[in-house]
Amino acid sequence: AADWHDHGSSSGAFTVLEGRLTEHTFDGGLQLVDLSVGDGKAFGAGYAHDVRNETDRPALSLHAYSPRLSSMTRFRFRGDRLEALGVERAGEEW
Questions:
Q1: In this predicted structure, what is the pLDDT of residue 94?
Q2: Distance between CA 64 and CA 77 in Å, rounded?
Q3: HSE-up of 9 (CA within 13 Å, CB side)?
Q4: What is the tally of helices (H) and strands (E) in the chain?
Q5: 52 CB-contact burial (10 Å; exposed 0-12 / middle 13-18 / buried 19+)
Q6: If the chain, 94 residues long, is cut into consecutive pieces of 10 residues, what is the mean pLDDT of each piece?
């Protein structure tokens, strides 16, 4: 799991190549979407989520971003909101 994060000013998309993943999003309430092989999601800049493998089998996904991913904001889920923890920058924290 990558924990709760956004992708800064980048838009992006991901596709599940193997296994199953569950995407957690928050828009006034927690939303869970199960994704299996061939399923994917596209999103705009500032979209916060947490993508998890909640199974005991391996999972693989492919992610792409435009423009190039240069920062990510990390969040903590507080039950009724997302709390920003800080911004990580490419080449510094990862």
A1: 84
A2: 24
A3: 5
A4: 0, 8
A5: middle
A6: 90 98 96 98 97 97 97 96 96 88
Nearest to 34 by CA among 11, 13, 59, 9: 59
Q: Nearest CA to 26 among 89, 75, 85?
A: 75
Q: Which residues pair with 74 in a beta bridge?
A: 5, 86
Distances (CA, A) of 30 to 26, 36, 37, 83: 5, 20, 23, 14
Task: Compute the distance between CA of residue 55 and CA of residue 57 in angstroms, rounded to an integer.
Answer: 5
List of residues 6+ apart from 79 with CB closer than 8 A: none
Please give the model's pTM, rounded to 2 decimal places.
0.92
Is the separation of the CB atoms in 51 and 6 below 8 Å? no
Find where tokens 């998309």 sit. Answer: 13
Residues 14, 35 contacting (CB under 8 angstroms): no
